[in-house]
Design brief:
The protein is of the alpha+beta class. Helices cover 41% and strands 34% of the residues. It has a 5-stranded antiparallel sheet, with no helix packed on it. A hairpin with a 2-residue loop joins strand 4 (81-89) and strand 5.
Length: 134
């Protein structure tokens, strides 16, 4: 670990973990600033291990929007009421997510946080000076 390669890898992992953590925090903060609306689940879609829900929700201008959104929280069934967060640009929805999508951000943030702490520890080991033989 104290070799040049070990120091490079430890530094690279630290930079990647901190960058990923910053990205997750930025994405989570951005989603919290989006407008929200109550919607109704139209259907539940399964594709392999991933589950999505088709949700209909109203926009501020009174029109209805239907979107297929990733389900990361509790299982939703047709007819369930959900809160949808959406980002509007020029009157069009450019991105949307279920409001309980924060769980995915917490998990990813926690994993990257642990990785960052491990990388800091690895860097401390890699960069401490070698003991001098007297």
């Amino acid at each position: 670990m104290k070799s040049r390669t070990g120091r490079f890898v430890a530094g690279l992992v630290l930079v990647g973990a901190v960058g990923g953590l910053a990205l997750v925090i930025q994405s989570s903060t951005e989603q919290r600033s989006w407008a929200s609306a109550e919607g109704t689940v139209q259907e539940r879609l399964k594709s392999g291990k991933s589950v999505s829900v088709k949700v209909e929700y109203p926009l501020p201008d009174g029109t209805k929007q239907v979107a297929t959104l990733s389900e990361n929280g509790p299982a939703r069934n047709p007819g369930d009421r959900v809160t949808v967060r959406y980002d509007l640009e020029n009157g069009r929805v450019v991105d949307a997510a279920l409001a309980d999508n924060d769980q995915a951000h917490w998990v990813a943030g926690g994993m990257l946080g642990v990785l960052a702490l491990g990388a800091v520890f690895a860097n401390l080991i890699a960069w401490t000076p070698k003991p001098r033989g007297d």
